Amino acid sequence: MIVVMEVRATQTQVDSVVNFFTDRGITPLVLPGEDRTAIGIPATLTTDQRTSFEAIIGGMEGVSKVTQTSYPYKLASREWHQESSVVQVGKVKIGKGFTVIAGPCSIESLEQMRESAKIVKESGATVLRGGAFKPRTSPYSFQGLAEEGLKILQGVGKEFGLATITEVMSPDMVEMVAKYSDILQIGARSMQNFPLLVEAGKSGKPIFLKRGPSATIDEFLLAAEYVLGQNNAEVILCERGVMPLDRTYTRNTLDLSAVPVLKEHSHLPVIVDPSHGTGVAKYVLPMAKAAYVVGADGIMVEMHPNPTKALSDGSQALNPEKFSQLMSEIHRLEAALG
Amino acid sequence: MIVVMEVRATQTQVDSVVNFFTDRGITPLVLPGEDRTAIGIPATLTTDQRTSFEAIIGGMEGVSKVTQTSYPYKLASREWHQESSVVQVGKVKIGKGFTVIAGPCSIESLEQMRESAKIVKESGATVLRGGAFKPRTSPYSFQGLAEEGLKILQGVGKEFGLATITEVMSPDMVEMVAKYSDILQIGARSMQNFPLLVEAGKSGKPIFLKRGPSATIDEFLLAAEYVLGQNNAEVILCERGVMPLDRTYTRNTLDLSAVPVLKEHSHLPVIVDPSHGTGVAKYVLPMAKAAYVVGADGIMVEMHPNPTKALSDGSQALNPEKFSQLMSEIHRLEAALG
Amino acid sequence: MIVVMEVRATQTQVDSVVNFFTDRGITPLVLPGEDRTAIGIPATLTTDQRTSFEAIIGGMEGVSKVTQTSYPYKLASREWHQESSVVQVGKVKIGKGFTVIAGPCSIESLEQMRESAKIVKESGATVLRGGAFKPRTSPYSFQGLAEEGLKILQGVGKEFGLATITEVMSPDMVEMVAKYSDILQIGARSMQNFPLLVEAGKSGKPIFLKRGPSATIDEFLLAAEYVLGQNNAEVILCERGVMPLDRTYTRNTLDLSAVPVLKEHSHLPVIVDPSHGTGVAKYVLPMAKAAYVVGADGIMVEMHPNPTKALSDGSQALNPEKFSQLMSEIHRLEAALG
Amino acid sequence: MIVVMEVRATQTQVDSVVNFFTDRGITPLVLPGEDRTAIGIPATLTTDQRTSFEAIIGGMEGVSKVTQTSYPYKLASREWHQESSVVQVGKVKIGKGFTVIAGPCSIESLEQMRESAKIVKESGATVLRGGAFKPRTSPYSFQGLAEEGLKILQGVGKEFGLATITEVMSPDMVEMVAKYSDILQIGARSMQNFPLLVEAGKSGKPIFLKRGPSATIDEFLLAAEYVLGQNNAEVILCERGVMPLDRTYTRNTLDLSAVPVLKEHSHLPVIVDPSHGTGVAKYVLPMAKAAYVVGADGIMVEMHPNPTKALSDGSQALNPEKFSQLMSEIHRLEAALG
Questions:
Q1: H or E element that contains A194
Q2: What is residue D312's predicted lDDT score, i.e. its pLDDT?
Q3: DSSP state of C231
Q4: Chain C residues with CB-CB distance to A43 below 8 A
Q5: Which of A201, C29, C127, D140 is 20 to 30 A removed from A157 (C-alpha atoms)?
Q6: Is the CA virtual torsion B182, B187, B188, B193 positive or negative?
């Protein structure tokens, strides 16, 4: 932490800052400058200290600004954990090769999930998705099949030899969802639902954490830190689009540069969701290929056996043909570049 | 709903859209234009229909865009409920006059809350705030006193004759928090935590709903709709700042024009939180006065008996003197303009 | 400037950074930390050095991040110029008291400007605005009367004893516009049109600089710095709304906390434009009052003698009655609080 | 255009809207709905009419909202011009194959440009870039060699058989820049500098138009419309990153989904600038490959023979090795997918 004083800060003001730290057993280094003084804190602070010290010091007389010199996350950081993590789910290794997670937005029926799983399996994808509880923006929209849906997902996953993933939306549901699904998804709107992060972390299941639409990279990695802090090392990050400039043509702005940024600063696997990331089926294919070439560890795509009948998010789901095309273009990229 | 066809849409494509609606017993009106055809849907659609029809039609061949002609919220809308709502909590009427909610970010001790309540009471404010479970961005920060804190809040509220408000963070905590607090706060990060909205709504308690940092006005009112849909008419809206252009000088951008916008389109009371809205104590006073003159029904401010000792958000909390100054400036505005 | 090294940075990497500075005659201070080393640069760097050093050092091996410890602007900064500046235009003193600038978006005719000026004058406002060259988003919209319009503005200003302001859009027009108008406005879209800033600065006229819709506070003050750097101290800052979350209810988000932020960090007068800041006539009045109470030095409002006939921006212009109401509410605030 | 009335709109209010149009010789269609009435305007409006009618009608009593049913741009639109445009510059065809534009941010010397051109040429890229007038955010940064630089660019371009591109920043410079450079670049900060768009358009030279950091797709295409409206069909669009959520890791957020969106709605070629789009050299390579797979017509990259000595934007420029690697990876993609 570096405390920068104002140009006209008095010696007494500088001393107050220095004393604040020495009172706490920390020896600051004073850097006199031509215009102003800076005070460096060489010790490693806990995040608790960082936050409260910044607040207190920032409010002291004569202080111009307080700057953190280290990143606020640690368990998620590649600085402290250099090898890339691989999250293993049955035979699927997320973080090794390119993993495709696919399936409908919502679980509607056994038949729909079996049809979906068949297509997913044949295409070479390895993880089946489907929502049992849908967090819809409007209270009047379709809300999901709940436990009934979870059973369908589990059964179909086993039948087709696919790992499964579904979203959990509140801490009291973690236990039930963990009973049926291989991976627990934390949705973008829940990225900072801290009780949920903690509870999901405790389940010991792999956690698929989606970036919130206005979350910075640091906020995203701090959310991962909550899960990792529960002695759960199985965290998968997912970029799914950030707030767009306008919503005329796409529902979100898929932030693909977040992939190399996350891969550089964290050891966790990174998946891209081009379906929610654009909100429009026809843009899913190009953005999925882009995810591949920027170094993502996989994609999550919405696919529906019959998208115009889909009970939710129909406009962004691929139909089986488009999904097959996507898979064959991904295979072509793998063959050429892998 | 209006469906606008592409310039080169064929008659068959127009017919497909028309048939989609007639198949569902809805008679569309076809508006031939010079360049392109538009198709109007005069019927009132349910929100479910709006969403799924938009998705399906938007994906049909020859369709250029689909436009909704009505607002997606209804219970929260002033179009359907013309008189302004007043939420009554004991003797406090939120939505009538200007209500001040104040207190520390976190409940730290009985002594701290008694000191706070004394200052709040003497200043003429009527609602005491304090957090028992703090949703901190970082897992390493202070996390709150939990039920112990709720008991302190309740006791102190009674002792000083102040209504109380505190945040509830997950559905399974609603019952406990509702036992102690007069008003339940849904934090900005939970604005789209739908299971929580539903559960809080069911409690029958007044719900204080904070706008998410990237939530549009429509998304905010739809979140309110979730609560209202539980037969709970006691919803208070709170503007607390949206995502800033940068975070160098303020933590958020307080969107004060949201106040007249919300008052026009909704009948619900609107409170402004200038403490989180700016994140900086010295900007709280001017923004609080601005909240008054733009027509807010009140403010929520962080005040701490000794802010440099505060265990969370110290830099944005007012000290007792600054809080007194704020209250006297508000009283001056009331006297002059009220 | 502080250079923070990576956790695993080698001594050689630290030395390279140190040598970079000693080679340039600057003596850095090395702060060894528990985890990582930081290197402080106590000298005052020129902005040129700041920028290029940051780029070069930021790219060196072992460097984690480079942090600037001082603000990038200097002439605009209150740190270096403590008294608030007042820009005098005839008898009008911008920065002393509360200045109201009003008039139509576009100059349409002599008659329209005379009608406008009469209303402006009678209300007690002191500066008349009107656009002669309109920067419309669409090339097909009304584009202004050009020099003909400037002559009307000048004549009407003199007739009614009002100072005048109009926008200049390109460097080659500065001379002509400066011949007719008392104040030169640089529009939000031109805030980083550097050749225009320089040319306008050189004119010696007071410059009214609007904040760009995505400009940070630092970028805004750096744009002011361009003008001030031409030995022109007469700069007025104008907050006019930043990019909104969505455009359903307002065209921009008026960032009122920018007023106290700018007043704290700069000595220049700050005006608020609630007309462009909201884009909707009915929200202009509350936001104008809010501008007053947050400490702005004035407002710029669009007023049109007959807004439904206005050739541009009709929906945000006040009609004469609403403008009179606004002025009487401002006078009431002045009487009560001034 | 569709005018949607409020739920409680009276018949008189509906009639006023209808009369507004019939007075102007336009016959509206009234769509009575269950809750509210909508009024459709089947005629093709000019953009001028669209804008002014929307403003006027939007302000009328009883009107809830006004929705445009067609896109505001026309010359840039693929609806009106179905084949993809190719901009030819000497032997270079932008819009056919994948064009690489490369070179330093600023022209510093003849030697530096010759070195750059040699590397560019050998790699197979075909257009040489370099800035003679640099629009720096800070007035204290390096500002460019001006006409001297333009002569260097032209000479080196001819010597190495490369087309050339450089930025023009004000209308009065268009003539001079057009004398030396094959393509005129309009920078992101100038995207809505309308006098410059008009003047550049009139030059008859190909115009390379960068998207502004907060420009929506519609605003971007309307800016292109200004140039096209000068009877200049040679417009190239460039996505170069939009405003980021924060600036900790990248300077902008490269909006790659804008590529398929622009290719769908416009016939103009689309180039991606991953250098400014990320602001960090190490992210240029992955984002350049992503630009290829999403369907861009090319990339513009900053390359400097010796980036740590670069006088501007050093941290985002590739060194010759990294640039060669980028070109060979692009060639590999072309071979595999082209």
A1: helix A194-202
A2: 59
A3: T
A4: 33-34
A5: A201
A6: negative
Alpha carbon distance C79, C265 (integer Å): 7
D226 CB neighbours in chain C (<8 A) are 139
ipTM of the complex: 0.90
pLDDT band at D138 (very low <50, low <70, confident <90, very high): low
Q: What is the DSSP letter of B97?
A: S
Q: How many CB pairs under 8 A join A and C?
A: 75
Task: Estimate to the nearest angstrom the gap between the alpha carbon of D48 and the chain centroid.
Answer: 23
Tokens of B179: 């036992």
CA distance B299 to chain A (A): 22
| pLDDT tens digits along D163-196 | 999 999 989 899 999 999 999 999 999 999 988 9
Number of neighbouring beta carbons within 10 Å of residue C227: 29
pLDDT recorded at residue D43? 63
- State whether D260 and A253 contact (CB < 8 Å): no
- Interface touch C47/D312, C-beta < 8 Å: no
Average pLDDT over residues A288-309: 92
Q: Please check the confidence at residue D58 and state whether its pLDDT lies above 90.
A: no
Whether residue A286 lies within 8 A of chain D, CB to CB, comes out as yes
What pLDDT, on the 0 to 100 scale, is given for residue A308? 67
| Tokens read off for C210 | 């609007």
Q: Cβ separation of C286 and B248 shorter than 8 Å? A: no
Distance CA A225, CA A197 (A): 9
What is the distance between the alpha carbons of residues A323 and A317, in angstroms, rounded to a whole number? 9
Q: Which of D219, D247, D284, D293 to mutate against chain A (most A CBs within 10 Å)? A: D293
Q: CA-CA distance, C314 to C303, in Å (whole number)?
A: 9
Give, to the nearest 10 degrees, the angle between helix B47-58 and helix B11-22: 160
pLDDT at A124 over 90: yes
Lookup: tokens for D131: 């800035």
Give the alpha-carbon dihedral of B140, B145, B146, B150, to 10 degrees.
Answer: -150
At C137 the pLDDT is 61
DSSP bridge pairs for B300: B101
Q: Please indicate whether, in this complex, the C-beta atoms of A40 and C44 are within 8 angstroms of each other.
A: no
pLDDT at C51 over 90: no
What is the per-residue pLDDT across B175-228, written as a single tens digit (0 to 9) for each? Answer: 999 999 999 999 999 999 988 999 999 999 999 999 999 999 999 999 999 999
What is residue D37's predicted lDDT score, i.e. its pLDDT?
Answer: 84
Q: Which two tokens stand for residue A33?
A: 């400058």
pLDDT band at D149; cut points 50, 70, 90: very high
Closest CA to D209 of D68, D70, D76: D76
C-D C-beta contacts closer than 8 Å: 139
Phi/psi zone of residue C231: left (φ > 0), alpha (ψ -120 to 50 degrees), beta? left
SS3 content of chain C, % helix, strand, coil (to 5): 40, 20, 40
What is d(CA D151, CA D164) in angstroms, rounded to the nearest whole number? 11
Cβ neighbourhood burial of D154 (10 Å; 0-12, 13-18, 19+):
middle
Q: Which of D21, D168, D177, D194 to mutate to test the interface with C (most CBs of C within 10 A)?
A: D194
Identify the residue whose tokens are 């009179």.
Answer: C324
pTM (predicted TM-score): 0.90
Q: Which residues of B touch A192 (CB under 8 A)?
A: 135, 137, 189
Report how far residue D99's alpha carbon sits from residue A56's, in angstroms, rounded to the nearest whole number.
54
Domains and CATH numbers, chain D: 2-67 (3.30.70.260), 87-337 (3.20.20.70)
Alpha carbon distance B11, A207 (integer Å)? 50
| Min Cα separation A33/chain B (Å) | 22
Which of these, C258, A92, C8, lies nearest to B290 by C-alpha position? Answer: C258
Do the beta carbons of residue D103 and residue D115 sit within 8 Å? no
Query: Tokens 């280094």 identify what position?
Result: A29
Chain B window 15-74: which residues touch A at a Cβ cutoff of 8 Å?
A: 46-48, 51-52, 54-56, 58-60, 72
